[in-house]
Structures are given as structure tokens and as C-alpha cells.
Specification:
This protein is mainly α. It is built from 15 helices and 2 strands. It folds into 2 domains: 2-296, ABC transporter involved in vitamin B12 uptake, BtuC (Orthogonal Bundle), CATH 1.10.3470; 299-342. It has helices spanning 2-9, 11-29, 36-45, 47-61, 69-86, 92-116, 121-140, 150-156, 174-192, 194-204, 206-212, 216-242, 253-263, 275-294, 299-341; strands at 159-165, 168-173. It has a two-stranded antiparallel ribbon. It is globular, with a radius of gyration of 22 Å.
Length: 342
Amino acid sequence: MQIIEKLTKKKEMGILVMIIVLSIILAFANSNFLTLNNIFDFLRSNAVLGIMAFGVLPVLLTGGIDLSISSTIALCAVVAGEFMLAFPSSNILIVIIISMAVGAVVGAINGLIITKFDIPPIVATLGTQTIILAGVLLYTNGVWISGLPQWFISFGQIQLGAFHSVGKVVGLSMQVILLIVAGLITWLIIKYTLLGRGIYAIGGNKQSAMRVGYNVNKITIFVYIFAGLMTGLAAVTHISIVGQVDPNTYLNYEMDVFAIVFIGGTSVVGGFGTVLGTSLGIVLMAIIKNGLVLAKVPTYWQKVVMGLIILLTVSVDVINRKREQAKLVRVDVEEEEVDKRE
């Protein structure tokens, strides 16, 4: 009974229930929803946002934010695309390393601006977002980069454990595998390392974390570098899906990424959030988007729904935090009254 009570109190359980309920509703509404073809397709199509969500999770846990990820993924994609055109005999590992390195540089710049100049993260990353986006569009003129090597196109089409289903080859795509790898790396860092404990400590109370001995500046720089690394990996993942680079397609990606993490139970002020919750947030977001598509909801209404979801999840988090603070204040007052009586 105690185990059940603990599970019901976890935010992840509420998300899981929502996933099950929505899946049942959509399965009744459209018989294609729970087919293997559709499940594998919507996991693959949401792998890019999922990888970025894992990358930005540590940033949000510290109470920070990174608005530059949508511009960073565009920059990484353009650099990766141009590199493959210049060196068509290269290989996927080098392309991934280069893309992630570009993302890491942007992340390091963000981290240094925030820590060295004491500029709020929302201002610093908004500035880098604007500069990077302008640079990418000036360089490309908004023109797609195509003609990528065949070995890269083939990499994007790899499916492990593939089998035939209704005349179609179905399997675990390379993009989903990269998503799983990104989730495992993030989980290991924030769950089992001193660095991970420092990330939570900064989000809980920055001053307390400094008094305990955590190097707040170094940890802050790290989380932005990590976000950049994952964004670089997401860039290669996206190119492998579409087979070309469209520098315009990444606009407003950050909104969907933040929605995933907040839906997954991460606090808007930092200090609380899990990889499991974010993973469930990825699945829930994928189900919502896929359900809206199957329901033939227009694209602009889909954006309205996403905006409402962000508002709802943030509002719920704020309300819950206020209730917890009110309980703490009430307990402190009651303890003071007891001490006075004694």
C-alpha cells in the first residue's frame, strides 16, 4: 500500500495516466493511432525535440533558460550540411562530433555571458539567439542545403529490429536510438554524479549551494554547454530525417522543447525535474501532436493548443509551489505559537 501511495504522489504517475487516457480516446477516434506504423513514425518525428529537451533539462533545473536553442540547431545543421558537401567522403561520427562541437561553443558563450557578466539567462540567450539566427540567414539566404552524401541518407533510413507490417518495413529507427542515448547520458549525469547534485542544489537555492561548496559558475557553464551538445546532436538527427538542411524550419523550436520539459513535471523555477518525467513529456507531446494531425486540426490551431498546454503546466506548477510555501509558513507559525506557550 505504501508503494502505491508513493507512486500516486509522483508527478510522473499523473503524466502516465494522461498518456494512457489520451491513447485510449485517440484509438477509438482513429483506428490507425495505435498501429505499429504510427507509433514508430511519431516517435521518430519527435526524436529531435526529445533530444533537445534532454539537453535543456539541466538548464531548467538550475533555474535558468536557453532561448538560443532554436538558432543553435539551425547553425549546427548548416555547419554539418556544408561540411558534408565539402567532404563527401567523411563519416557520420565526424559529422556528429563537428555538429555537437558547434553547439558546445554556443553553449559555452551563453554560460560565460551569464556567469562573468551576471546577465540574466533569458536576456543573454535571447541576444545570442538573435545574433546566430541573423548570421545563419545571412549566410544561407534562407536557401536549403541539399545534395548530401548517400551514406548519410542511408544512415537516416536505418531501422533496427525491422520487420514487415502491412506492406511496410517497421523498426526502431536510428533517430529514436539517438534519442534513447541522449536520455541515458542525461539521466546518468543528473542522477549519479556530484555535478548532477549540484545542478539540483543551484535550482533549489543558489546561495545555499554556494555555501555548501558547489562551484555555481562552473556548473552553470556546464549545463549550457550540455544543452549545446544535445542541440548539435539534434541537428544531425533532423537532417537525417529530412535528407537536407532547411535553415528556416527551426524557428520557435524552443517553445515545443520547453513544453515537453514542463509537461514532464520540471519546475519553472528550477530544483525539481527528472529524466523519466521528461521522457513521458516527450511521449505525451508526441501523442497530442499526432492526435491533432489525425483529427485533421489545422496547423495554426495546433500552435494554439501547444501554447495553452504551456500556460496550463506552468500555472499548475506555480499554484502547487504557492500551496507548498503556504503550508511551510503555516507550520512555522504553529511551531512558534507552541514555543511561546511552553
